Each structure stands twice: as C-alpha cells, then as structure tokens.
C-alpha cells in the first residue's frame, strides 16, 4: 500500500471518529424538546456533553486539514461544489457552540428557550447535511475535465443523498438519546430509554434501505471492494438491531456501544464503496478524481505520516482521559442544588 492509499484510509478513520463522537453530540442536542420538561431537565441533558462537545468537534477540523494536505484536488472540488451545504453546516455549528456557552448567562426563561432552539437546529442541520454531502460523494456528482463541479444545490438534493441525510439524522438522534440514557438518572433517563427504542425502530428501517441502496449501487459500478462493502453494511445493520434490543433490556452501555459500532461501519460502508475514487463523476467517469490523481506528493505524505504517528496517539490518549474523568452520571439532584445556590 502506497502513502496515497494509506492516507485515504486515515482520512476515513478521522471522519469515522468525528461521526461517532460528534454524532451523539448532535443527538443529545436534538433530544432537548423530547426529553426535558423544565430547565433543570434541559441542563441535565446539556451537561452530559458539556465537558466534551468542543473536543469532539476538533475531529472534523483535523479531518478537513488532513484532507486539504493529503488530497488538495479532492478538497478543492469538494469545498467549491458543496460550498453552500458546508457553509450551512459551519453556521449551524457556530450557533450551537455559542448557545452552549451563552444559555446560562441570564436567568430569563425566554433567553434560555431561544438558545435551546438554536441548539436543536444547530444539531439537526449538520446531522442531516453531513449525510447528504457524503452520500453525494459516493453517488457521484457532475464534474468537467478540470475536475470542477458543474451542478447546483438541487443536484445535491437527489433521492439517494436525501435518504442518506435522513439516515444520519435518525442514526445520530438515536445514538445521542442512548447516550443521554447512559449518562443521566431519574425521569430523563427513563424517557430517553423509551425514546431510543421508538427512534431505533424507525432508524433500522431507514438505515437498512440506505445501506442496501449503497451496496446495490457499488455493485453496479463494479466497486473492487464490494465484498468488504457488503460486510461493513451487514455489521452496521446487525449492530443497530443489537443496540435497540440492548436498550429494551435496560443495558444502556451496550446500547450506546452498539450505536457507536453502527456509525463506524455505516461510514466504512460508504468509504469502501467509494474506493478507489475520491470524487466520482456522474457525467463522464474519465473526469473523476481518484486516489492517484488527487493526492499530494510522496514527500508531503511522508511528512504527514510521521506527524500522525507522533500526535494521533497523544490526541487519542487525551480524549480517552477526558471521557474517563467525566464518566459519572449527571444527577438531577445535583443540578437542582446548583440552581438553588445560583438563586441565592
């Protein structure tokens, strides 16, 4: 395996990490209207991700930076063609981050309700649009001989991509609700378990349709890794069913773990279906971007490989330590005591 192919898989792993970690962040944000009946409940839910949400989002920064350095042609075509969709994602993430920091700055319920709405919207928009974007990358988009995107926003809103967006939206929502059940107590915990079961059943149906469509499409294009694509799709489907069943039985850790495995292998299904292209052309296959013609020079990839070898384990160790420190459940009683202390 040469360095260009190695970095194709490294970038894939970085996006897997981002969708697993920020995926349940999005789900937690989207769950606010369904799980919390008062401000104490909303604070309890938000505090489950309070110490880690910004750390989770750094994965997309690292993934984007590595994409830019390792595959500049891919980066240029992707960010120019998908400019509006990615801009909407960025604006939503900004609104979401601002809301986490500012909702508690005033006691006004109207003030907090406004920022809570921004958290929900700022979580739902990226959850949907990331699925649309990556589905279009796998499906293929119109490119000219210079690898320039020649479509429009409506081109990206095709049935396969919309189904992909709905799949990530539901998958992240269920993944996040499972996390809330794992990290809270009392009424919020019980409501999260019930909601995770209901949303999980819907997610199984939608995700199965999307994974099946992806496998059929990859097979029709003669994807060289079709066997691996089928295996990844099957593992994702089984893990999702296991996650829902574990939630029904009250095994919250297994439910959350199953959701994480589902996200991992759903993304790998797309990544293996994409190989060896990075941006296939839907108009003329000769205009497609491949791992070979989109990658940087071997010297650049060599420097990046050494940097990744040193810093990636450090980043993983720090993130693991952070989750270990904040591993305990967020108690409603503790939130009520804090609220009472703030009132005095």
UniProtKB/TrEMBL annotation:
Its main location: membrane. It is found in: Cell membrane. It holds the Pfam family Cyt_bd_oxida_II. Signal peptide: none annotated. Keywords: Cell membrane, Electron transport, Heme, Iron, Membrane, Metal-binding, Transmembrane, Transmembrane helix, Transport. It is a multi-pass membrane protein. The chain crosses the membrane at residues 6-36, 81-98, 119-139, 159-181, 201-219, 225-248, 255-279, 299-326. Belongs to the cytochrome ubiquinol oxidase subunit 2 family. This is Cytochrome d ubiquinol oxidase subunit II.
């Amino acid at each position: 395996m040469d360095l260009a192919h190695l970095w194709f898989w490294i970038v894939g792993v970085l996006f897997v990490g981002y969708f697993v970690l920020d995926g349940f962040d999005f789900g937690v944000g989207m769950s606010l209207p369904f799980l919390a009946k008062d401000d104490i409940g909303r604070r309890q839910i938000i505090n489950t991700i309070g110490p880690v949400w910004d750390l989770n989002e750094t994965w997309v920064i690292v993934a984007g930076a590595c994409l830019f350095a390792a595959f500049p042609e891919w980066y240029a075509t992707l960010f120019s063609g998908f400019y509006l969709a990615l801009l909407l994602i960025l604006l939503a993430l900004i609104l979401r981050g601002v809301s986490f920091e500012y909702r508690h700055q005033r006691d006004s319920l109207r003030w907090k309700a406004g920022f809570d709405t921004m958290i929900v919207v700022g979580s739902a928009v990226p959850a949907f649009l990331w699925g649309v974007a990556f589905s279009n990358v796998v499906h293929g988009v119109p490119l000219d001989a210079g690898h320039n995107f020649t479509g429009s926003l409506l081109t990206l809103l095709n049935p396969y991509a919309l189904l992909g967006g709905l799949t990530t939206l539901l998958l992240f929502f269920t993944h996040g609700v499972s996390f809330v059940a794992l990290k809270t107590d009392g009424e919020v915990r019980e409501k999260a378990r019930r909601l995770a079961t209901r949303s999980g059943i819907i997610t199984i149906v939608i995700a199965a349709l999307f994974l099946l469509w992806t496998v059929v499409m990859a097979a029709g294009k003669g994807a060289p890794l079709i066997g691996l694509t089928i295996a990844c799709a099957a593992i994702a489907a089984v893990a999702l069913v296991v996650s829902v069943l574990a939630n029904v039985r009250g095994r919250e850790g297994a439910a959350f773990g199953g959701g994480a495995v589902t996200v991992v292998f759903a993304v790998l299904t797309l990544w293996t279906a994409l190989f060896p292209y990075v941006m296939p052309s839907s108009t003329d296959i000769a205009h497609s971007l491949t791992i070979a013609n989109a990658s940087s020079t071997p010297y650049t990839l060599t420097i990046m490989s050494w940097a990744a070898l040193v810093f990636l384990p450090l980043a993983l160790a720090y993130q693991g330590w952070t989750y270990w420190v904040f591993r305990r459940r967020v108690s409603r009683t503790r939130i009520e005591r804090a609220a009472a202390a703030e009132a005095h």
